[in-house]
Amino acid sequence: MSERAGGSPARTLAVAGYLADDVVRSQRYLLPLLVYVAVLGVLFGGDPGEPPGAWPASALALYPMAAWLAVIVANTEDPVQRTVTVAAAGGVVPVVTGTLLVGLAGDLLLVALPMGWPVVFGGHPYPPSVLLLGGVAHLACAVTGTAVGLLCARPLVERIGWSFCLGTAIVVVTAVQPWLPPVGVAVGALAALGPPPFAAAVLSLVLALGAAAVVWTVERRR
Which domain holds residue 34? Predict the structure, then answer.
């Protein structure tokens, strides 16, 4: 089957569903999820305060967690299983796109936790404009993490130890630069209660799509 046919939306969604089920069954997501919930428990414990509260810190914490999750999704199959999945899907496109979609779906779940926590359990009002700011900023950090995770996983980085070292280095170097988009700009907008960082969110999506394109190029040439 041609690569073009393999990229049909229905086939891509089927692959995404298969990969998501594989991730859930492997339970490898539990460790980053538990670590993330523990971090949020510390940040939002007691009264989270008036907005932005702990959102700048939770958005920054979301960055490495999303990268970690993306590595788990991309590495959920070993190379032999991946080859079988690519053949069954009709090409590399639906598999790489499905991997990206599962990572982005995980981002939405991770974003929902810090967004809902102070609203549900806090005693201060969070108006719609502030919620929009928080949502856009958290999404920018999460999607950027997904881009980093895809670039640090198979087929680009074969060994999980190197994935961890490379991902940690990228996150540390980029997260501490407040002027650097998308993460630095998004966290800065949250801290200053500025306008929603839509440009940073769009850039994060471009980075994620670019990372997926790099993965597709490498895997297609193997």
Answer: 3-220
